[in-house]
Amino acid sequence: MLRLPTPDGDNPLALQRILALRKLYCAGNYWERQRNVSNVSSPLVRMLNVGFLASSVFPYTQELGPQHLPLAADIAGLRFYRVPDPLPRFFLVRRLHLVNGPDEASSYLGRADFAPGEEAVVESQELRPDGPLGGGTVQVELYSANRIELDVVADGRAFLASSETLYAGWTATINGKPARFHMTNGVFRGLMLDGGVNRIVMTYWPER
Asked: What ranges do the domains of the chain cover?
């Protein structure tokens, strides 16, 4: 409604998978105007591209979590904390943790040692990459409501993770050929890539 770019869209009607992800961060509660959180510096914050946390209740102390969040501003008692190194919307990961479904995915995502910049939780038993995944560069060429274009240069077989929700109606091509999305990190889109140059086009066109 506010046209804020968030992983679950601009719509207050969130998917059940999004609600499950929220509960992992908010100590078993859904996000509302005021909620206690289980771990302010949870790895999930980086995964969701969060750059700042706003709160009227967190005291400015060293007790904000294992990664101290620096105070960026204090405006009339509303404090803004900077999240270090949030992940971009699209990024390559070095390893996959394969699970059978959303319950297993949530269990792994809730771990304190989950490293979203290095690994992705993928609901698949078909993906069996031979050896470690490659790194590379990701360049966003076009980002719009119904179409996204990316140029990815990978130095080997790679996996593209994102913070883009896998709504029904999204399709993808890689170098002009249809590609299959994999449910990644509970609710997001992921793609398996070959090494080299990959031109990725994601298009939203739900069935009428």
From this structure: 16-82, 90-204
